[in-house]
Amino acid sequence: MNILPQAHEETLRMICNKLSETDIIWVLTASASLAAQGMDLIPSDIDIQTNDMDAYKIAELLKEIPITSEILPVEFSTTEKMRSHFGRLEIGGVLIEIMGNMQKYCEGEWEEIPNLPSLVEYMDYKDMKLPIFNIAYEAAHYKKMKRFERAAQIEAFMQQTDIVNFGNCSDNK
User: Are 2 and 36 spatial neighbours (Cβ–Cβ below 8 Å)?
Assistant: First the structure.
């Protein structure tokens, strides 16, 4: 069961169409990715992870879509737990968050930047080829961010659907 709300699905289709014209490596992540993979949750936004330079390119390309407004230009941003080249757009009322070279602060140090080409997988979703992370990788990400409730939800979903934990779920650490 795939449960993306129609507005998210339509916006994601516009994003896929725009980015498929490029060689940009990007990944749909967090709640929108989990919902597309069948988890019973309603995403509040669409999160895109990429590298630093492509974060700026994606923002510029998506601004070409007529119903796009820029909320926060992409720029380097850091919090106690994460840092990335971060920006926010809105496309047709759906919030888009772009994160380039995202790093997490865990156990007293910044983790290495994920090697996206080695982590991206693709799924078919309503005639779209969506780049996603392995769902076990997503669970590990939530654990590292100390979001244990969401990690437990993902792991329960994996058990219910017989999804196998593929390999090491670390972020290249």
Answer: yes
